[in-house]
Fold this sequence. Notes:
The chain is of the alpha+beta class. The chain contains 9 helices and 14 strands. A hairpin with a 5-residue loop joins strand 7 (about 205-210) and strand 8.
Amino acid sequence: xxxxxxxxxxxxxxxxxxxxxxxxxxxxxxxxxxxxxxxxxxxxxxxxxxxxxxxxxxxxxxxxxxxxxxxxxxxxxxxxxxxxxxxxxxxxxxxxxxxxxxxxxxxxxxxxxxxxxxxxxxxxxxxxxxxxxxxxxxxxxxxxxxxxxxxxxxxxxxxxxxxxxxxxxxxxxxxxxxxxxxxxxxxxxxxxxxxxxxxxxxxxxxxxxxxxxxxxxxxxxxxxxxxxxxxxxxxxxxxxxxxxxxxxxxxxxxxxxxxxxxxxxxxxxxxxxxxxxxxxxxxxxxxxxxxxxxxxxxxxxxxxxxxxxxxxxxxxxxxxxxxxxxxxxxxxxxxxxxxx
Length: 340
Ligand code: ASP
C-alpha cells in the first residue's frame, strides 16, 4: 500500500517537509528511488524571472530522470547519484561546478563528496580549482586512493594523474555569481563569508541520494561553498557525516545549507543514526534533525534522504529548496517553494 503524506508547517522562518513512503508493489519487483536537490534558501515567489525558474525546473527534472533511468535499467545507486550530480554541476544555475560562487580572491573553489551505503566507502575533495566535475574526482578518491579526503593542490595533482577533466576559469564564471561577490565586497561587512546568493540567502549546492534494485544506497554532494569565503573555508558538503552519508542499514542523505551548522550538528550521520538506532522513520528522523535540532541551533537549510524501502524525505527549514524525486512507485516530483 502506498502512503503519501504532505506535512506543511509554518513558523517565522517557514518549514516544510514532504515525504513519500512507499512499500514497493509486487509487480515492480525490488524498489528503487532517487531524490536530488539544488540547494535550499529563502526567496519569495516572483523573485526569479519566469525563464530562470523554468530552466531550473527543467534541469532538476532532467537530472532526476537521468538518474532514475539508470536505476530502472539495473544500474547502481552510485552511478545514478554520480550522473545526477554531474548534470547539476554542468548547469550554470547551481552553486557547483560551472556557475559556482566566487571566494574572496575571485576564484571558484570547489568541494564535493560521495559515499556508498553497501561498503561505507567514501571519497571527498575540498578547495579544488578548475576541476570540471568535482563529484567525479571525489569518486576517484574513493575508488582509486587509500584516502577518504584530498584537498587543494594535492587533490588537483591526483586529479591530473587520474585523467579528470579540467576547465579554464572562464568555464566556471557566471555574471550572476560575480555580481554576488561584488555585492558582498561592497557591503558593510566586506570580509564576511556570505551565503551563496546574498542578500537572498539561497544556498545552491547540489546533491543526490538513491536506492538501487540491489538494495544499495548512495549519496553525493557538490558545491562552490559560500560567496566571499576566505582563508580556505570549507563547509559541510565534502565532510562525510555532515553534508553526505550513506549506510545500507539506515539511509542515504545529502545536505544543503549553512555549512558551519551542518558540520557541528553532523546532520547527515545524525539522520542515519536515528533511523538505525531509534524507532524514527526516515521522515521523523529528518524532521528531528533539520526542523528541530538545526532550527534550534539557528542553522538554515535542508536534506534529501532515501531509505532501503524506497521512502524519500525532502526536508528543510527555509522557505524553499530546489528539489526533485522519483519514488518507488515512479511518481515524479519537482518543486522549489515550500508550499508545492
Ligand atoms: N552547505 C554549503 C556550504 O556551507 C552551502 C550550500 O548548501 O549552498 O558550503
